[in-house]
Specification:
The complex is a heterodimer of chains A (about 80) and B (about 425).
Chain A lengths: L1 E10 L7 H8 L3 E9 L3 E10 L1 H13 L3 E4 L8
Antiparallel strand pairs in A: 1-3, 1-4, 2-3
Helix pairs in contact in A: 1-2
Chain B lengths: L3 E6 L5 E2 L14 E5 L1 H7 L2 H5 L29 E3 L1 H7 L4 E5 L9 H15 L3 E5 L3 H13 L2 E6 L5 H8 L4 E4 L4 H14 L3 E2 L5 H6 L2 H10 L7 E5 L4 H15 L9 E7 L4 H8 L24 H11 L3 E4 L1 H15 L5 H15 L9 E5 L24 H20 L1
Parallel strand pairs in B: 5-13, 6-7, 6-9, 7-8, 10-11, 10-13, 11-12
Antiparallel strand pairs in B: 1-2, 1-3, 4-5
Classes of the chains: A alpha+beta (about 80), B alpha/beta (about 425).
């Protein structure tokens, strides 16, 4: 089992969709939200994902394909 | 000695031992070094600092490093220049430039990497690593060479040759990753989790970021132990901006300067301005963007410290400004023409931003203002090379020289009147 920490950023049109619920239903991944800030027009969620690494990768691809931005929790690593 | 006592979560305030960790296990918030300021206050004075070396290590007591493993390539204590000519052009009577082009690898990154490399040695790491489009790569490679550490430096494709040479000369393992910016980010996030390296801005980040505080310390010391009225700082992740403010605050906390009333303004390139966009929208919720600007050293689309930068802006009454690529180039040329400093594109962002802040009344004419020039222009020549006047081509005679000069001056007059 692997654990993976990620940040999801949602645009307005995605805020009402139950993406994290669906991620847990459609893939063998346990989702555990640690911090979030969601307003009426935008939002982000920092969460931990637990499962097989391959399953997590598949799940993250599915989330990204929905239009959610997926980032490492520490922000961009590439610097100037 | 170091007065660092713990790592503390910037969100939930939980404390952790001083180890190579960067995220709070509880809320996944970022960790920051916490200090015993009461003990620090007993140890430091103007005299003790002024007796120190002409580098960031004159502030060793305010940094999170023990003295035994100090890595030192003479980063810091760069000139603070009274910029009369630029000030006159912009309408400022008390303008100063903090010229961090004068660091060993020609950018402010030497400050942060000096601290990260020192902590890496302290923790027993044998490898320094980073992912960078230039300045950070150069600095990590140089510090690793000096410290006798291995270095892995990851770069995106299509990097300018000057930046590659500026790293490869120090003999790191230089890895060019095929893929876009997001691909490099993702790979390096995975590598940082897999390999036992000191990844300077990942597991070393709490310590690494502390190096930027020294810019605040130096400016205050060089102004005669006082905080400026206004700072104008380039923003990428926002960390530099926040830490300059923290540095000034700490000096006040240690009774080395009076209370700080400094307004902190930040500048970004229009093509990568998520912090400015949030500021203008009146929110601290920073929306990531895909960078598209010539200011590649500021091209962080998902800024880790954006939220905190916006907090400092609100607290101090500073402003946030953007500049277009053309304005950045004009800023670089203005700085060079008036003060003899060839800055990289981030310097152009700052000068262009400074101009806008003055024009909009964001900076008062007589405010003691410090603009931070964070890297040298030789690394980003491509940004300006096509906009500069080519040299006069003449035969080796006085007549040929005078003819060519006359033609050039006539052309200049016509251009000025057009």
């Amino acid at each position: 089992m692997a654990t993976h920490r990620v940040k999801f950023t949602f645009l307005q049109q995605l805020i009402t969709l139950p993406i994290i619920y669906d991620l847990g239903k459609q893939f063998k991944i346990v989702t555990n939200i640690r911090r979030a800030d969601v307003t009426e027009d935008r939002g982000w969620v920092v969460l931990e994902l637990v499962g097989d690494m391959e399953e997590i990768e598949r799940g993250l691809e599915w989330v990204a394909a929905k239009g959610v931005r997926v980032d490492p929790v520490q922000g961009d690593i590439v610097e100037g | 000695m170091s007065f660092a006592k713990a790592l503390r979560c910037r969100e939930c305030q939980r404390e952790y031992p001083l180890e190579a960790e960067y995220v709070c296990d509880f809320c996944f918030g970022p960790l920051e070094v916490a200090y015993d300021y009461d003990a620090m206050r007993e140890a430091v004075s103007h005299e003790s600092i002024e007796a120190g070396p002409a580098s960031i290590w004159r502030y060793a007591d305010l940094l999170p490093c023990e003295p035994d493993n100090r890595v030192d390539i003479q980063a810091g204590f760069t000139p603070l220049i009274r910029a009369n000519r630029l000030g006159k052009e912009l309408g400022l009577t008390n303008l100063y430039l903090k010229n961090d082009c004068m660091n060993p690898t020609w950018s402010f990154k030497d400050r942060v990497v000096t601290v990260a490399a020192t902590k890496a040695k302290e923790f027993g790491f044998d490898t320094l690593a980073c992912a960078s489009t230039g300045n950070l790569a150069n600095s990590v490679a140089a510090h690793a060479a000096s410290a006798g550490l291995d270095a892995f430096v990851f770069i995106p494709p299509d990097l300018e040759q000057g930046k590659i040479t500026g790293s490869s000369i120090y003999n790191p393992t230089l890895v060019c990753v095929n893929g876009n910016y997001d691909d490099v980010n993702r790979l390096c996030s995975e590598l940082a989790g897999k390999y036992p390296w000191a990844f300077v801005n990942v597991n070393m980040r709490p310590y690494y970021a502390e190096g930027s505080k020294t810019l605040g310390y130096e400016v205050a010391e060089q102004l005669g132990w006082r905080a400026p009225d206004h700072c104008v700082v380039p923003m990428a992740s926002g960390s530099l901006y926040v830490k300059i403010w923290k540095g000034l605050q700490e000096l006040a906390k240690l009774w080395l300067i009076d209370s700080v009333q400094t307004k902190m303004s930040g500048a970004q390139a229009l093509g990568c301005s998520p912090i400015v966009t949030a500021f203008e929208a009146g929110t601290k919720n920073v929306q990531p963007v895909r960078p598209s600007t010539i200011a590649k050293s500021l091209a962080i689309g998902n800024p880790a410290d954006g939220f905190y930068a916006l907090g400092v802006m609100e607290e101090t009454g500073g402003r946030a400004v953007t500049s277009t690529d053309d304005e950045i180039v004009e800023g670089m040329k203005l700085l060079a023409r008036t003060e003899g400093i060839f800055a990289e594109t981030a310097g152009g962002v700052v000068v262009a931003g400074l101009k806008k802040l003055v024009e909009s009344g964001g900076i008062g004419k007589d405010e003691v203002t410090v603009a931070f020039i964070t890297g040298a222009g030789l690394k980003t020549q491509e940004a300006v090379i096509d906009t500069l006047e080519p040299p006069l081509q003449v035969e080796p005679t006085i007549a040929a020289f005078e003819e060519a000069l006359g033609e050039r001056r006539e052309a200049d007059v016509q251009a000025a009147s057009a």
